[in-house]
């Protein structure tokens, strides 16, 4: 069947994504109440009983708000590294011992024919991670909540067919916004969130003949807009000599209040044109 996914919701108010290959269905994060998670799943013709496990990126509340209730309601295993378990233990309540599964940063696990690999990212959490999903020759990569895209992260994301990548804020909108300076400094720092420009810079290096789509995720409702994010990302790519045809590569929307349509990861050759800067 191959890999399919839907970003159930993405933003500072909550995050959750579903990845499936038809045999195994995994939820990445549960940053909403259990009721809201159920509602979002229902919008994509799923229910909690269809989920086989929950992968955790990090312990911030917009990623684990409903983690404990959802796991208990559906008796689901939770996968997280040791430092993340320690950081979120008191927040999520009691979890059955058999459902407390340590997945080290950098570790890969096989769920039938679906392989899941975590990789470390830079964020102000205990040990935050992104995830790669592999099935046959398909690759889906998910990376949000990262202050910058390090060489190791670029290596982890390389040759993905589809990316879910953070484009959190427009730098000028954030600087002029209502947040206190300490919060702005945190967001702008290397352990904060990825700006539209930084996302575009990363994409200029990551876009290859394998990459068909990038979903821009975790947009700030106060300091960003999807049209602005896509324009800025594209401009940043072109400034670095990376040009593409929209029939061959697409920048795609995510939403804070509803799921993206189901998308299927499949191979399709494209030929982005890089010109020297």
TrEMBL record:
Q: Which reaction does it catalyse?
A: 3',5'-cyclic UMP + H2O = UMP + H(+); 3',5'-cyclic CMP + H2O = CMP + H(+)
Q: Where is the Metallo-beta-lactamase domain?
A: 13-218
Q: Note the InterPro entries from the entry.
A: Metallo-B-lactamas (IPR001279), RibonucZ/Hydroxyglut_hydro (IPR036866), WalJ/YycJ-like (IPR052533)
Which terms are listed as keywords in the entry? Hydrolase
| Pfam families, alphabetized | Lactamase_B_2
> Which GO-annotated molecular functions does the record name?
hydrolase activity
Function (record text) = Counteracts the endogenous Pycsar antiviral defense system. Phosphodiesterase that enables metal-dependent hydrolysis of host cyclic nucleotide Pycsar defense signals such as cCMP and cUMP.
Know the name of this protein? Metallohydrolase
Species assigned in the record:
Paenibacillus crassostreae
